[in-house]
Design a protein that fits this description.
Length: about 110
């Protein structure tokens, strides 16, 4: 009977050691998995932040392109307007129509003391 108790006690101790090792392995594995998940989610959050920054820059570029396009469309529309062409020619080249007199104002020279 005493031998049986001792055998049971040894068997019980071995079982506890196996369970303890199993729990330790499970705890280490769980900690490793949790650490990997934290790293993965942190990297993903950084990627999402970078993508948001890129999207914001693209929105700014798009707005600038829309404004540039509107300005070019305005210029293109004015190229078909004869009055706009005449006004530009008069301003740029100093042209006058037949019968008009071109007057150029000259400021008097200042005396140097």
């Amino acid at each position: 009977m005493r031998g049986e108790r001792r055998t049971r006690r040894v068997a019980h101790t071995r079982t506890q050691a196996r369970v303890s090792r199993g729990l330790l392995l499970l705890l280490c594995g769980g900690t490793l998995v949790a650490g990997l998940l934290i790293v993965m989610f942190s990297l993903r959050a950084a990627q999402i932040g970078n993508l948001r920054d890129d999207l914001h820059r693209m929105d700014i570029d798009l707005q600038a392109a829309v404004r540039a396009r509107a300005e070019l469309e305005t210029q293109l529309a004015s190229q078909d307007d004869l009055d706009a062409i005449e006004t530009a020619a008069r301003d740029l080249f100093g042209w006058v129509m037949p019968g008009e007199i071109k007057v150029i104002f000259v400021e008097p020279a200042r005396e140097v003391e």
